[in-house]
Amino acid sequence: MKKLITSESVTEGHPDKICDQISDAILDKLIGQDPYSRVAVETLATRGLIIVAGEVTTEGYVDVQKTAREVIKKVGYANPKYGFDFDSCAVLVALHEQSPDIARGVVKEDLGAGDQGLVYGYATNETKEMMPLPITLAHKLTMKLAEVRKDGTLPWVRPDGKSQVTVEYEEGQPKRIDTIVVSTQHDPNIKNETIKEKIIEKVIRPFCGELIDKKTKYFINPTGRFVIGGPPGDTGLTGRKIIVDTYGGVGSHGGGAYSGKDPSKVDRSASYMARYIAKNVVASGLADKFEIQIAYAIGVSKPVSIMIDSKGTNKISEEKILELIENNFDMSPSGIIKTLNLRKPVYEKTATYGHFGRNAFPWEKTDVAKKLKNEAGL
């Protein structure tokens, strides 16, 4: 049976991603000074304006306006001609302390979950990253868009951009790319024909060439013009790209956003643990595809439920896999933080091109896989 699976990605200059990066840059600066900072920071970006709001309880200090401007400049909005730049935009700040009612459940030795909620982790052996192929390719395209802009290969590319990749699967395995969509903000004097030619040559073919055939469809800047981009073209918000951040629509999502949240918030930290578990299960050979759901109650340290689904690819019973997981992974908030070393400023790097699939992050390690395999008798 054939089916099409589509995933998208956005560049670091996309308005929502600007917001994610500002929120996580603030978190990193605070947690770097006070590892026990409790942070929930949201950012909004629109024409000429950044608004930062949320709850912070910390012994550290951050210059929020300076941090926001640093992120905007690094992303590439340094030219007033773009209609938005780090130097001229206003930055409004509305931060206050965390609710003491929430703190009661979190500030204790046996750390309770910072909120109720459910999270998912997923892994598959169809790519070396153990991620679904569509989201892997989509991220590589947007990363390449940023690269050719910054290194001058395509100097007319501007910071905002998106990609979308549709992969054809046959019997559960990726076979070919059916459709590729790339939209990039650009200088006003560049022709559409040039944009299409150069994006295919410099951005798409380096990563997608082996999976492209004569039937592959391309849509490069399909509206015909993309000069006004970034916050002037579309208001941005923290946490509005949760599928881009995770598995591209393959598998499930618990609904919680990640950026701007310290690790006591299990919708972030437990999602990282869920990915860590799923990746180790697949790396161990217990299953070819694997998904796990973990649910929490606010103030309670142990999960209220764990559900697994190996998509019919398990090599031993799912009951045994669940037993191995419960015996080898501490899914309490304090256990997650300790296992993954999350009280460090590692978060801004996660805010672009996905939280999963890059070996720079501790939840991408497969250091438990051998133990799982041995205990399973494989």
What do you see in this structure?
The chain has 378 residues and is α+β, with helices and mostly antiparallel strands. It has 3 domains: 2-9 and 133-220, GMP Synthetase, Chain A, domain 3 (2-Layer Sandwich), CATH 3.30.300; 15-100, GMP Synthetase, Chain A, domain 3; 117-125 and 246-256 and 264-376, GMP Synthetase, Chain A, domain 3 (2-Layer Sandwich). It is 32% helix and 24% strand. The chain has helices spanning 15-33, 64-75, 100-106, 133-150, 192-208, 242-245, 266-283, 318-328, 333-340, 369-376; strands at residues 2-10, 38-46, 49-57, 90-96, 117-124, 157-170, 173-186, 217-220, 236-237, 289-296, 305-309. A 4-stranded mixed beta sheet has the order 1-6-7-8. Helix 4 (133-150) crosses helix 5 (192-208). The longest helix has 19 residues, at 15-33. The chain is flat, with a radius of gyration of 21 Å. The protein starts with a strand and ends with a helix. The mean pLDDT is 94.
What about the largest sheet? 4 strands, mixed
What's the structural domain tally? 3
Tell how many strands the DSSP assignment holds: 11
What is the CA-CA span between the terminal residues?
30 Å
* Average pLDDT taken over every residue: 94
| Strand percentage | 15-25%
- The CATH C-level class name of the largest domain: Alpha Beta
CATH architecture of the largest domain: 2-Layer Sandwich
Helix content: 25-40%
Q: Give helix and strand order, one letter per element, not per position.
A: EHEEHEHEHEEHEEHHEEHHH
Shape: flat
Biggest sheet, spatial arrangement of strands: 1-6-7-8
Q: What structural class results from the helix and strand content?
A: alpha+beta
Low-confidence stretches: none
Radius of gyration: 21 Å
CATH domain topology of the largest domain = GMP Synthetase, Chain A, domain 3
Tally of helical runs: 10
